[in-house]
Write a structure and sequence with these properties.
- Strand 11 and strand 12 form a beta hairpin.
- The protein is built from 14 helices and 45 strands.
- The chain folds into five domains: 87 residues, no CATH class; 102 residues, Immunoglobulin-like (Sandwich), CATH 2.60.40; 108 residues, Immunoglobulin-like (Sandwich), CATH 2.60.40; 183 residues, no CATH class; 115 residues, 60s Ribosomal Protein L30, Chain: A, CATH 3.30.1330.60.
- The protein is α+β, with helices and mostly antiparallel strands.
- The N terminus is likely disordered.
- The strands form ten sheets. The protein has a six-stranded mixed β-sheet with strand order 6-5-8-9-11-12. Strands 22, 23, 26, 28, 29 and 32 form a six-stranded antiparallel β-sheet that branches.
- The chain starts with a helix and ends with a strand.
Amino acid sequence: MIYKEAFINHVYLNQNGSLRLKKTKNLMPKIYKKEIESTSNLHKSDLIGIILNKVKEKFGKIRQNLYFYPRMKKSLFTCICSLLLLSLDAQVAVFGNVFMNGERLTDSKIIVKSKGAVLQTYTTGAVSNFSFEVDFGPNYEVYIENAKTFPMFFEVITEKVPMRLYDAQMAHDMDAGLYALDDERIDTMQLKKPFYKIIYDGKKKMVEDEAYSIEFEKGVVKKLTQFLMSGKVYLDTVTGKTLKNKAISAFDKNGKKIGTTYTNRYGAFLFLHIIPSEVVRIEVDVDDPAFNGSKVSIFNDNKVPITETVIDNGKANWLFDRKLAKTLMDTNFTSIVGGKLISASNKEKKFFANKSVYLTDSTNKILSFTKSNTLGSFVFEQIKPNNSYFIEVDKKDLKPGERIDMLTKDDNFIATLDSSIEDKKAVRFSSDYNKIYNDLSIEEKEIKMEVKATIFGDNVNHPIGKLKILLLNDTYQVIDSAYTDNLGTFKFKYLPFLKRFYLSAENTDNILDVFQNILIYSSDANLIKIMTHQKGTKFLYNAVAAEMSRLRDIELEDPWLEYVTKSDSKKQGSESKKAESVTAKQTGEVQNKKTEKESKKTEQVVSKKEEKKAVKNEEKNPVSSEIASAPSASTGEPNAEAVPDVKSITEQIHFEKNKANLTPESKEILDKIILVMNANKKLKIEICGHTDSQGAADFNMSLSSTRALTVKNYIASAGIKSKRMSTKGFGETQLLNNCTDGVSCTESEHAQNRRIEFKILSE
């Protein structure tokens, strides 16, 4: 009995039941020999398990006192395994234990495969240890499955063992540490790789590939920056009023503060370096006793209400469990930034309009670029948290002595582009909570988009005119429609921003069926997509992210923009008609050359997966011309403030308390209006002053008239003729809320009523 004799000659039990190794071949005392002989009917892997558990128990006690336990444990354990090899039929023996978070796991399933074929499979049962034997030559994948953990596997690579050693026997001892199913730190994509590799050391051992193990451990646990909790705090879900610029903190089960940030200018917050499952409470410091007793709600980034509470003693506290906290987790979080650029010199101030604006990273790599609009505004998407960025303009667009100031959407000064980087002027910002980033942050309802493209059939010689194009949102609701002109061009203007949209076409009278391919070109005559058209089917274009950025332009919402663009459009109207035929001819020549080359790449451009998905979605959500009459789509968020009537534009022009003196911030807003009136010489306005209800009504009436006149004088001082402006004061007679005499209101609520309205008299 070779297997048993090997044990008897090399291993015996002490009287305390511990295992001891003998360098000599002394026989085991008879009293313990019976104990080993009684196991003769066991499978040798079971016997190995018994021996291994004894060794682990022994050195588990040593571990408490010795720092060098792991190395001692490994060497002694390998020594025992080597002794056991004398009885093995195979060439490699692997021994190990299954762990999760440092605790032994029982009932694990072990599956040994080679090239996909299952060679061995068994369950560990009531013990945590496992063992198996394989031969040199092939490579093996060993899968470990347990109900409490993610399924994982390791590799045994024997192909590099030289044939001269094929008569040798090798052993390897390992601990298999698996990850719990509810461990949200784990990047499950990494688990498609082996968590451990056993390789030939080039001499006579099978050893761990330590370099691989280190790299795997680095990648399998997500970086803390990937753990983001984001949402928005609403004070009133009916009006859409949010808690802005307030401290917000997260606490764990021990009451320890594990993260602090601030809500931004529109009530949104973002926690970085935080694990959602550890959060049991979120607290906002409202710091205003007037809000006590008010309900406050948290919504996630998908505009879904998550939880609500009542403000008590100036604070709002929401309790969270693991499931609730996970609803605020967004590993793909990005934000939007935007602002306005103003060109300023000693002589004049004007919009930095229709100029290139760049978004670059900390290495000055261009990530995105756009053209500033007529009011000098720009917008950039896909801003990742905790990164450094630059906003830049070309130096060649600046005159000597000219500087570029960056303003917020609401015309408040942010910074001057005063850094020089190569051939550009720039300003830096970081995408964590700070003043510049907060001022630049834009929420989706504050931006508008324009979608435009040109459609051809088969080639650019066949523009498809008079085709009704439908714009669909991400739930396939029709939000707008437009017809292509004779050049095949369509445009959707000043639409609510959509992260995802689709384009469809009503194939009336089968006008698309004469074409095999549908070509979509951008407004700058570049091919975006070639799509195969099947007769009798609807046209549906599912643009990917890169294509959407070429189809749409994004700009900040500003009611004054319409009055600048109207002026521009009148100037350009006659010129565009003359240029249309020339442009069509030039576009056709350019596109014909491009199409010959690009049509050869059709197979690469067209994504079959997208087409199948689009067809499937179309069948599931059929587009009907009847629903085209519904021009708007639900935003899914609390009722937002109504878009102001374009004939009456309200601005928060601030004055010194009980005085008519303008603040510096208000002058920035009035400077914008001056620029608009300079751009549109036919624009005439009425300036209406309003106050809050604090103070005497007669005083407020007089104050509002004086403030309206102050605004007129400031605009006139910039060269705008006085006859284009009239003034009127309304005092406290037209309040925007219920803050009348005797009603307790917060300072921010009173501030809503202190305003200047500009009524458009003529354009």
